[in-house]
Structures are given as structure tokens and as C-alpha cells.
């Protein structure tokens, strides 16, 4: 996930034409992308997964880093012509565009895809940039102007929004609603001596602007494709070798009028394609004053084929009427308002009211006017509206929102419901949202392992796991209702986009048998079993810690601490429940002994549950009970279980932990005793 050798190898092959680069790229993609072979780590399943209909957020590695290896699929299609590469790539791109691209053109919620564009978690700068890089590949491959609409949305909103006005810093998170903070303040753990502002986001952000050179103007078989509108000049060379300058004189995206001067060195026959954005319902185009009457369609290119000569002048007039996105899920009761490519946003510094006191927006007949701002940091665009209650609401472009450190909102209060009469060209398709709700619930059910592993708690913190199981039980009746609705709709409208999408998803869920009463009942049974067994688990906190000792090459050779080994009380890191060994090793490599004394009222069978940040060995009452040479960070509470016969009175537990060159934080430990021994339920995990 975190490396993209497959993509790099494709680029190497393109440059050198050495066969072995292509062969290795194909080997990685065909075998390792699947990664389900025995003995291999499970990988992203980027090829088979989407071909089998999985959404990107359902794949094993839905984080943003995956987008870089996925770019290999586009290259491989280009190099080999094999359609499965193209198909998989396009499906991944569409899945993100439909389900994980937010209203501001940003990608990711909490650094990854979740199948919900209303999810309010962090929209990381790196994720949006990776999404744009993926989109450039998609645009190259598909020649679909709607992909360029996406790039424009991301550029004018998220990318400008992630940069401070001065360009001095960039954000880690550019949320739909919130404030802007410098990445150097949010992901401090990446800072190093001498480079306090160096982090993943601060280095990635500027690529949002740099990518413009990849997609602003492109070439195809017939000529040139103009994707980006903005003031400035672009110089290029036509397929017949003639130099050309395209100059745009415009105040776009503040206004919709664009004067485009076409200046070839000599007259030349070629097609110039102009992107007609999907939100521009009424577009007018003239060439040298003569109106173009055919081929102007929102969401398509307008192809202008002629003999172009110096002095040719195109006038393009885009429709800057408002368009909308009605929120759902976490954004229910809210609406986003757009003007052209710009998302309009409330910022407290331009308004008299606080963010939680905004008037409701009435989208029908919405009227606003452009106003000037004479204060500090003027926004790129500012509009003034009169709300139904008479108050004045000012909205700026998303890129300028929060620039002064004040809170902003791009989801605005909305009293209306779903409204088929509203124009929502940048919103997620309703059928994609409808199916993703079912799929997201299915993913939660799928995350419950089989009975034995689940009760062993090996995969998750016990309390998180209980919350997870309770959530499934709680939400099931609602999901069941939606499932019935979906089945009825799939049967009633077999030919519509909604019907086709619903049927495909329902068939997949049925094949897996995942959303069935039996599966939900099984999850409930696991919860009961865990409650029955683990309400008696007690976390141990009174650790004693040795000084740093030399570590054996292999933890299996570690000896029981010799008599006379000095121990001192060890601190407990309450947030994670670990005994913190960092003060004891101070970042150095070695071995640390940890000791616990646990008193048992009545002898009987039980368990020791523990987690360790490094290779570890365990003794109970002087007898070696367990050894985990491959344990590593992060320690997972209860990851390892040891059956123990407790003796009456004090039982001594000793851990030997290798500090992994000083990276180990510590040890988690809890014990289970016979039910009769424990009366105090307050200590349950
Ligand atoms: Zn980052």
C-alpha cells in the first residue's frame, strides 16, 4: 500500500523499453496485488476486487497511499492494451468519485475511503493530492470531460483551501466544516530537528497546483483538449509541428465569460475541444463573433474542427447559475451551494452571526450579489444573500474560507427534504449512496471474525469490539428495512441505473450470505459470550520494571531474571493501558523485565491476556508460559492469551521485553479468574 514499485516499473519500461521492467510490474499487479497466495501478506486486491464489483472502500487497503500503486493499472493498460487493467482502474476511480469525494473536491475521511461523502472526519491534504493524480490518469485514459470537472472542483476549492493565503504553510486537514490549521501543528510527530515544518502534507500540497500542467491542456488524436479555464497563456506544439499559443482573458471563476485567443504560428487544421462543465446548463460559444449552435452539452467536450489561424477568437460564456448538493447522513438537514466550480462557504469573519446560528438556505429562487471586501485578506469571491428571516448572509469561495483562522461551514442549514427539482450536478448519484449504506453495514458484519477468534479477542481491543457488536445489533432493524426496500426497487425497476446497481450489490451480498438474520444472531451470540467470560477480566497496573539489560539475539534465549535484579515501580500510560517502559530504556536497545504480583483468593483455572510492543517471553510463578518472538508495535490489549492455573495467594508474573532499538512503549496485561473469585464487577474490561 505504501509503495508504488509497480507504477515506477511501468515508467521505467516506457523510458528504456527493457522488457524485465514490464514483466516485474505485471508480476506485482497480477500476483501481489491480489496477495491471497499462501504465505504472502494480504495486499490491496486492487485488480480482482473491483473487477468483482467491490467498491474501493471495501478493499483491504482503502487508505490514500493505495492510489499510487493503483496508478500502475492505468499504465499497464496503456502498455499492454489489456482491458481488465483499464476496467479495474476505472471502477476504482468511479467508486471514489461517487462515494468518497467530498463537496469541496477533497478525498478521504480519516485518511481513507469509507463510502460516505458526508463523513466529517479529516480530509487529509495528501489524500486529495493522490486523488487528483489518479484523476489525471483517468482523464488521459478515458478522455471524459467529467473527470476534468473533478480536477477543477478539487483545485479551486480544496487545493486553494489547503494553502495559507501567503503560501507559507499548508494544512493536514481541510474539512468541509471547521477551521484551517497548519500541518506543522497537527501532525507534529513527523517533525524532525532542523525541519520542523517538513511533513507528508506540507510537501504534497503544492502538487495540487503543479498537476495543472498535466491536465490544463491535453492532446488527443484529433488535436487539442482544453480542460482548464483561468487567465493566462499556454504554449504548445500541434501534432503537425506548428507552435501554438492559447491565451485566456477572463475573470473566471469569478465570472463565466472567457475570451480565448488562438494563435498558431501558421494556419493549421485541427480540432480544439473545449470542456463544457457538467454544471453549465446554458453555455454560449462564438468563434470570431459567429455563434456555435451544435454540440454544446454539459459534461461533454465541444469539438471545434476548422482551419485555425492567428487572430481567431473564441468567446465562451459558462452558466454561473447556482447549483446544489442536498446533504444526507451526518449532513442531513444541510445543503451545499455552488456557483460554477466554486463551493460557497460561510466564514465567521464576513458575517454577524455565529456558525451555529446560520439562517436556513432556500435554494429555489436563490438570489445573491457579488460584493467587495475591504478588510484584511480579501476573499477571492464574496456574495451577499438575504435570508428568509431578513438577516444578511455572506458566503465566500471555499478556498478563501477560514483563511483568517475563523470557523467556516460549507454545509448550510436547509429546511427542505430530498428535492428532485434541484440541480445537483456535483452530488453523489443516489443509487451509489443507497447501495453504499448496505455495503458499509456489511463491512461491519464482515469484520466480526469467527466465534473462536472473536472470543479470544485477538484482533481488537475488547471494549472497542463490544461497541462494534452492539452497533451491529442496534442498526440491524434499520438496515433490514432498507434491504427490503432495495429488493423491492431492484425488482420493480430492472432497467434503471438504480435497479441495475441495486441488483448487482444485492446479488453479491446474497452470495456471501452476509446480511442475514443468522449472521446478526451470530454476532449477538459472540457479544453474550464475551460479556459472560470477560466481565471477570481485570487489568493489571501495578507493574515493576527492571533497568535496561543486554538483549539476547533471540528472545527465546532470554533467561528468568536472576536473583538480585532490581525492580522499581513502572508508570502506566492510561490512554492505552500499557506499562510504559520508555523511561527505562530511554530509546536504547536492550531487554527489560516487568514484574506483577497478582493475588488470587481461590485457586482455579483462568487466563493471562496480554499485548506487547516487541518480542516477549512470559513466566508465571517461575515457569515459562509463553513466548512471542514476532510481537511488535502497537501492543494490542489481549492479543495473546495464556491458560493459567492460578494458585491461591500471590502469583508472580514476569515479562521479558526486547525494546526494539528503543521503539517499544510497553506491555498490557489482564487476568481472568474463576467467576467465584470476583465480586467487584467494576473492573470489567
Ligand atoms: Zn499528509
What do you see in this structure?
- This protein has 685 residues and is an alpha+beta fold.
- It folds into 5 domains: 5-214, Glycosyltransferase; 230-317, Immunoglobulin-like (Sandwich), CATH 2.60.40; 322-413, no CATH class; 430-534; 538-684, Galactose-binding domain-like (Jelly Rolls).
- Strands 1, 12, 13, 14, 15, 16, 17, 18 and 19 form a 9-stranded antiparallel sheet that branches. A 6-stranded antiparallel sheet has the order 4-5-6-11-8-9, with no helix packed on it. Strands 20, 23, 24, 26, 29 and 31 form a 6-stranded antiparallel sheet that branches.
- Helix 1 packs parallel to helix 4, helix 4 (67-80) runs parallel beside helix 6 (125-142) and helix 12 (430-446) packs antiparallel against helix 14 (462-492).
- It is elongated.
- The two termini are 34 Å apart.
- Bound molecules: zinc ion.
- Residues 124-126, 172, 200-201, 204 line the site of zinc ion.
Amino acid at each position: 500500500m505504501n509503495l508504488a514499485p509497480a507504477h515506477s516499473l511501468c515508467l521505467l519500461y516506457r523510458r528504456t523499453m527493457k522488457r524485465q521492467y514490464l514483466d516485474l510490474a505485471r508480476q506485482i499487479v497480477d500476483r501481489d496485488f491480489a496477495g491471497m497466495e499462501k504465505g504472502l501478506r494480504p495486499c490491496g486486491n486492487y485488480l480482482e476486487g473491483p473487477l468483482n464489483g467491490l467498491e474501493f472502500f471495501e478493499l483491504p487497503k482503502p487508505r490514500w497511499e493505495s492510489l499510487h500503486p493503483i496508478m500502475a493499472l492505468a499504465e499497464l493498460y496503456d502498455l499492454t492494451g489489456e482491458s481488465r487493467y483499464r476496467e479495474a482502474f476505472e471502477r476504482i476511480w468511479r467508486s471514489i468519485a461517487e462515494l468518497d469525494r467530498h463537496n469541496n473536491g477533497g478525498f478521504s475521511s480519516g485518511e481513507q475511503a469509507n463510502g460516505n461523502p458526508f463523513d466529517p472526519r479529516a480530509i487529509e491534504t495528501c489524500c486529495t493530492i493522490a486523488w487528483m493524480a489518479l484523476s489525471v490518469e483517468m482523464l488521459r485514459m478515458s478522455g471524459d470531460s467529467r473527470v476534468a470537472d473533478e480536477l477543477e472542483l478539487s483545485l479551486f476549492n480544496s487545493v486553494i483551501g489547503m494553502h495559507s493565503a501567503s503560501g507559507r504553510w499548508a494544512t493536514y486537514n481541510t474539512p468541509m466544516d471547521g477551521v484551517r490549521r497548519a500541518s506543522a501543528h497537527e501532525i507534529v510527530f513527523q517533525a524532525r530537528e532542523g525541519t520542523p515544518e517538513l511533513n507528508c502534507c506540507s510537501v504534497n500540497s503544492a502538487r495540487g497546483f503543479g498537476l495543472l500542467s498535466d491536465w490544463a491542456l491535453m492532446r488527443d488524436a484529433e488535436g487539442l483538449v482544453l480542460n482548464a479555464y483561468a487567465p493566462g497563456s499556454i504554449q504548445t506544439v500541434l501534432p503537425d509541428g506548428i507552435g501554438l499559443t492559447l491565451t485566456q482573458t477572463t475573470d473566471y471563476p469569478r465570472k463565466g465569460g472567457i475570451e480565448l485567443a488562438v494563435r498558431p504560428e501558421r494556419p493549421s487544421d485541427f480540432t480544439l475541444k473545449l470542456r463544457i462543465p457538467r454544471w453549465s446548463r446554458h453555455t454560449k460559444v462564438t468563434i470570431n463573433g459567429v455563434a456555435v449552435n451544435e454540440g454544446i452539452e454539459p459534461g461533454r467536450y465541444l469539438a471545434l474542427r476548422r482551419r485555425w489561424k492567428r487572430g481567431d477568437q473564441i468567446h465562451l460564456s459558462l452558466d454561473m447559475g447556482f447549483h446544489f448538493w442536498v446533504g444526507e447522513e451526518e449532513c442531513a438537514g444541510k445543503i451545499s451551494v455552488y456557483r460554477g466550480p466554486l463551493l460557497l462557504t460561510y466564514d465567521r469573519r464576513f458575517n454577524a452571526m455565529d456558525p451555529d446560528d446560520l439562517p436556513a438556505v432556500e435554494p429555489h429562487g436563490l438570489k445573491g450579489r457579488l460584493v467587495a471586501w475591504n478588510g484584511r485578506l480579501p476573499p477571492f469571491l464574496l456574495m451577499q444573500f438575504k435570508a428568509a428571516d431578513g438577516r444578511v448572509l455572506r458566503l465566500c469561495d471555499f478556498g478563501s474560507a477560514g483563511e483568517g483562522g475563523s470557523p467556516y461551514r460549507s454545509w448550510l442549514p436547509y429546511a427542505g427534504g430530498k428535492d428532485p427539482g434541484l440541480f445537483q450536478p456535483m452530488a453523489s448519484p443516489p443509487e451509489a449512496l443507497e447501495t453504499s449504506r448496505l455495503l458499509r453495514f456489511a463491512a461491519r458484519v464482515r469484520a466480526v471474525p469467527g466465534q473462536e477468534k472473536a472470543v479470544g479477542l485477538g484482533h481488537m481491543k475488547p471494549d472497542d469490539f463490544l461497541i462494534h457488536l452492539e452497533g451491529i445489533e442496534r442498526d440491524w432493524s434499520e438496515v433490514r428495512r432498507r434491504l427490503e426496500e432495495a429488493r423491492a426497487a431492484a425488482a420493480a425497476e430492472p432497467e434503471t441505473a438504480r435497479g441495475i446497481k441495486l441488483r448487482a450489490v444485492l446479488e453479491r451480498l446474497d452470495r456471501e450470505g452476509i446480511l442475514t438474520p443468522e449472521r446478526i444472531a451470530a454476532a449477538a451470540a459472540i457479544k453474550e459470550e464475551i460479556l459472560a467470560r470477560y466481565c471477570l477480566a481485570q487489568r493489571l497496573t501495578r507493574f515493576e520494571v527492571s533497568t535496561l539489560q543486554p538483549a539476547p539475539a533471540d528472545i527465546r534465549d532470554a533467561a528468568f531474571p536472576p536473583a538480585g535484579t532490581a525492580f522499581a515501580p513502572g508508570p502506566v500510560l492510561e490512554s492505552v493501558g500499557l506499562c510504559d517502559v520508555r523511561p527505562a530504556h530511554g530509546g536504547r536497545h536492550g531487554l527489560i523485565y516487568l514484574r506483577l504480583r497478582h493475588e488470587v483468593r481461590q485457586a482455579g483455572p483462568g487466563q493471562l491476556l496480554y499485548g506487547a510492543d516487541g518480542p516477549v517471553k512470559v513466566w508465571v510463578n517461575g515457569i515459562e508460559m509463553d513466548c512471542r518472538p514476532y510481537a511488535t508495535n502497537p501492543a494490542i490489549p489481549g492479543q495473546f492469551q495464556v491458560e493459567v492455573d492460578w494458585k491461591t495467594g500471590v502469583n508472580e508474573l514476569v515479562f521479558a521485553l526486547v525494546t526494539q532499538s528503543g521503539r517499544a512503549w510497553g506491555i498490557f496485561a489482564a487476568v481472568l479468574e474463576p467467576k467465584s473469585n470476583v465480586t467487584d464487577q467494576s473492573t470489567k474490561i
